[in-house]
Amino acid sequence: MPLRRFATFLICVLAGVGCSSESRERHAGTPEDPWVIGMSQCNLGEPWRVQMDADVRAAAARHTNLRVIFKDAQNSSLVQRAQVEEFIQQGVDLIIISPKEAAPLTRPVAEAYQQGIPVIVLDRAVQGDQYTTFIGADNVQIGREAGKWIRERLGGSGRIVELKGLMTSTPGQDRNRGFLEGLELDRHPGLEIVFTGEMQWLEPNARREMESALATNSEIDVVYAHNDPGAHGAWLAARAAGREADIMFVGIDALPHEGQQYVQQGILDATFLYPTGGAEAIELALAILRGEEVPRKIVLGTRLFTRESVGAGGQPIN
Amino acid sequence: MSAEWRVKLRGWWTTPVARALLALLLMIVIGCVFSADGAFFRWSVHRDMLRQVSVFGMLACGMTVVIITAGIDLSVSSVLALAAVSFAWLALPQGWPAVFAIPVVLAFGTALGSVSGALVARMRIQPFIVTLAMMVFARGLAKVISGGRKITNYVTEADGTTRLVDLPRIFGIIDSKVLGGNLSIVTIIFLLCVLVTWIVLSRLRLGRHIYAVGGNEEAARLSGVPVRRTLITAYALSGLFAAVAGICQAAQETHGDPETGMAYELDAIAMVVIGGTTLAGGKGSVVLTLIGVLTIGYLQKILSLNAAPEATRLMLTGAIIVCAVLFQRGK
Amino acid sequence: MTATGGEPIGTRRGSGAEDPSRRQPIVVMRGIRKSFGPVEVLHGVDFEVLPGEVHVLAGENGAGKSTLIKILSGVYDDYSGELYVGGRPQRFSHPNEAVRAGIATIHQELSLVASMSISDNLFLGREAAQRFGFVDFGSQESQAARILEETELDFSPRQLVGELPISSQQILEIARALARDASLVIFDEPTSALNEHEVDSLFERIVELRRRGRGIVYITHKMEEIYRLADRITVLRDGRLVGTAAANELPPSHLVKWMVGRDLAVRSGGRPGPSAEPALEVDDLRVAHPEIKARSVVEGVSFTLRWGEILGLAGLQGSGTSEVLHALFGALGRRVAGRVRLCGQPFPLRGPRESVERGVVLLTNDRKSFGLAPDLNVTHSVSLASLSRFCNRGGWVRREEETEAVRSLTREFQLSAPSFDAPVRTLSGGNQQKVYLACCLLPQPRVLLLDEPTRGIDVGAKADIYDLMRTWVGQGIAILLITSEMDELLTLSDRILVMHRGRIAAEFTRETASKDDVLAAAMGLAGCHERGGVE
User: Fold this and answer.
1) Contact A263, A306 (CB under 8 A)
2) N or C: which end of chain C has fewer CB within 10 A?
3) Which residues of B make CB contacts under 8 Å with A?
């Protein structure tokens, strides 16, 4: 039967892969024999993660002595786990992983690390210390900066609408918590959050929520959305109601094709960068492969993009 | 006089339309009670609700036709995304004028629907499986066309340089309001879709064939009904409406997002079913679907006005779907 | 008590006085009334069943038989009147309660699960449970084996019910009823899907039940069945009790009068004979078996159907008669070979749509599965096959024309429906059949292929349909007719072709045909007739 023949073939191939992994030897890191880096992205459904891959790709293109294999785990921890195992089998020199969830990926990452493959964990952490370096940004801090910026721009009094991301996700919770910290509502009684809606990161939902906010509030000074599409959706709703000129719109993420463009076009008043860490990961990977010492944890700072600073690539916030 | 009138009223009362209207009425009463400081009594709130459900309603129109044939179309949300992306791609980076871009996108959606229909009608594969496959395929194609990113008026050229193009006027036209700002254009497009569906289902021979195929396919075949052609046309209509919805979605978002419309097919199915069209096929109407669309629309609007948290919304929506369907069955 | 509308017939009600023994009835129903909404459909009916009797419940469709039975079997609980089971007052609120009280119902549609085994079906709903809800399959299977042995069914308990012939399934249902200790078994038209052999074996089981002292309620339209089985007969008409009588004291003519309220002799003759011109010429028609390519279900059938002729096609189930009709309609696709000419022109059997366009229409023997869409309303059901007549270029239906045509046709059929907008499923069986017939007639066919046109409908409606058929052939339409009712076949047909195992075994004219000869030929016993094709 053809099926059985196929199964036999499959077993042979798998056995072959298994054998080849026995003989692990590092690549030389020259243009003839470049280092191989495996990049496992948890999900390419979000533009921000597409950007992360793009950043990695762009940074890698600047170096002739390395090659990156990209894999998309399609939002499944099990698929991602298999990808890490495949990287080990393939004998890559270094793994960059942006894990979907901490717990299920801790073991496979630790296995790779124990076999002597350096692992850079991007954006979301894994448990324990069996990895080389973690690179990530701090959502609480970004939320805090956004809150602080809005408080200062409003001069301590104003009516605020908050459009929240998925509140079952950590970024949603953190961007909300940091924002409230930055606003310091207890010390500024003039500031008031008049409406909060959950838009689950989605633009059409943000537009729906903003319509409700506009219908129940005749005066709104600022809309703070947990991501740029949310802020854009809110702006569309306000424009449809003819009130977009009276309101400031602030978002987070500042992707070049998205938030930065919105700022440039005058749709958003400000957006805060949530860095992907893609470029940093490649630089760090090179350092590790060259045998240099690297820190265990790198927290990336955010950048503020306003109409004035967007042309200059934003202004860093320390 | 009054007795006869009462009998007539009682007869009307048990019709599916009356039952569906009762559910809608109940929803409006709830809206009046939880009016969010009187916001519910302003027309602009209703206008916004109508705008917001319009895209779902367009999908529900096609879904009604397919469900009456005893089928299901899970691919509408992905076809919507694909249409949104193709429309944005044609109109923004390619700079096609709307008169060319819109017909091409509509034809594209219709073609995809026809493919599903042909697989159902000729290969005899179950509609659930065919349209599930089409759902995945069309989403993938949307990502290929868009390169996984939103297609905006900020265009990247092949050589890496970027430029900003003006948003074509058609985007603004679709996302504007008429009648003194009291009705959105998308709502009018939605109502046109309802009208077209109504004409097809209750005025054209095709509609009779659709009901007959859904009610008893073998009987329809032996009566000389072209069963395959009918099925293919039903799915093609669904694809067409999904493409219309996709263009409206792109115009409202001012870009083509390959991720847009995720899980919209479930809302569309819920709207059809709440109206009283059963999944078994052979009966139902687009008027019922219109009522179902409004019922869900008001539910979402009331929850949103009162800033109900997401968990509450999900639970309430589930409960309302079951209640409305029970309502349909009567005591 | 029950008024019978001034019927001059002497009725014997509440037959207690003539009851030969003083056995206590298994079931007594007194003054049963039942309404659907504002309409009362049963107006105070009395009914009783004694142990060891077959009690036939007769009446036209819509007379209230099924409603009465549904009350007895616990389907309806909103009725007034009294119900005693075994002498104790009872009111079932659910079919399960009736089953528990020993009342089993064998429906027209079998209630077995085709995809489950015989043993699982026998114990469905009362599985031999062990602790924690585990099923004791071993003991179930051994019990099932015993039951199968008793009922002389030669199957393994593990065999799937769907693999059994219909008759065996029916016997299995009876066995299931017995396994549940039913004291009363209700049969609702059990023979409609059976051939003659199967009917015989079913009747044996029923006689066996009677011998064991069970009560049997038997519902049927078929006269010969009534007189083969019945001990007593109760007749309902328009929701009222007409009377109850011992079978040997109620001759058929009386029974028909009770049921219909008027005399109904089968009228014959009085129409011009068929013309000599052929309408449909069939030469060497062959139909392959649906699964086994090498076998045929129709092997070389040739005949000629003339204008204005009713050609009867007789044969037992599996003889290939239905396949001939379906093949001529083009409904069997590539399985068919042979040459067919319509009005002298080649007729290529392309498919149902082409056939309808060329004036050939098929009425199948299974209205529910192949005939009607249950939720389509009356108008749309009737016009389904002829919509192109009422459509303009763009496919718009000209609805006034359509409604007018449907109304005038259904008036001829004496259709009684609540409204033309009502879904056909709300009509009685006889009226559904009329709708189906009307659907076939509206395209103004020239050749009608009728497969059991009067199945499952009452005596009055049958007579209406006979009259209609005579009118049609009078207008020159050619009819190819299959019917399993011998009287119908013999009185309606100008000629009769008898099929046996896919071949034509004999041909009779109206004058030469007799019941015995037709049956003998159908069973393959008549090699000596003029067209004998039997080895």
Assistant:
1) yes
2) C
3) 36-37, 39, 42, 44-45, 48, 51-52, 55, 148-150, 152, 154, 156, 164, 175, 177, 249, 252-254, 257, 259-260, 262, 300-301, 304-305, 307, 309-310
What token pair was written down for A61? Answer: 């293109």
Helix pair A203-216, B227-253: axis angle to 10 deg? 60
The CA-to-CA distance between both ends of chain A, in Å, stands at: 66
pLDDT single digits (tens) B269-323: 999 999 989 888 888 999 999 999 999 999 989 988 888 887 888 888 888 888 8
* Mean pLDDT confidence for A96-117: 90
B93 touches chain C (CB under 8 A): no
**Residue C217: strand, helix, or coil:** strand
Contact B203 C372 (CB under 8 A): no
| Candidate from A198, A212, A264 with C-beta closest to B310 | A198
Helices (H), A129-197: 139-154, 170-183
Separation CA C420–CA C400 (nearest Å): 13
Cα–Cα nearest to C29, from C81, C99, C76, C66: C81
ipTM of the complex: 0.82
Distance CA B178, CA B168 (A): 19
* Alpha-carbon distances of C442 from B165, B324, C91, C304, C467, rounded to whole Å: 62, 40, 47, 25, 17
d(CA C477, CA B137): 54
Q: What share of chain A is helix, strand, coil (3-state, %, to 5)?
A: 45, 20, 35
Alpha helices, H only, C180-218: 196-211
Q: What is the per-residue pLDDT for A21? A: 42
Residue pair A176/B271 in contact (Cβ under 8 Å)? The answer is: no
Enumerate residues 6+ apart whose C-beta is below 8 A from B299. B27, B316, B317, B320
C-alpha C12/C-alpha C249 separation (Å) is 10
Cα separation, C423 vs C417, in Å, equals 10
- Round to whole Å and give the CA distance between A200 and A169: 10
Name the residue facing A195 among B45, B300, B307 (closest C-beta): B307
- pTM score, two decimals? 0.76
| pLDDT of the residue at A19 | 43
Q: At what angle do helices B310-329 and B264-275 cross, to 10 degrees?
A: 30
pLDDT of residue C38: 65
d(CA C223, CA C234): 14
Put residue C162 in one of left, alpha, beta given phi > 0 → left and psi -120 to 50 → alpha. Answer: alpha
d(CA C341, CA B151): 63
In chain B, what is the straight-line distance between the N-terminal and C-terminal CA atoms, in Å?
28
CA distance C87 to chain B (A): 34
pLDDT at res. A69: 92
Give the per-residue pLDDT at C110. 66
Q: Is B30 helix (H, G, I), strand (E, B) or coil?
A: helix
Q: What is the pLDDT of residue C533?
A: 39
Torsion angle (degrees, nearest 10) of CA C111, C115, C119, C122: -10
**Positions in chain C whose pLDDT score sits under 50:** 1-20, 263-265, 267, 527-535
Per-residue confidence (pLDDT) for residue C439, from 0 to 100: 92
Q: Tokens at residue C133, please?
A: 């809800």
B220 contact C CB<8A: yes
- A46 contact partners, CB below 8 Å, separation of at least 6: B259
Question: CA C383, CA C405: separation in Å to the nearest integer?
Answer: 9
Which tokens is C146 given? Answer: 């015993």
How much of chain C is in helix, strand and coil states, percent to nearest 5?
Answer: 35, 25, 40
Instruction: Return the pLDDT at C339.
Output: 92
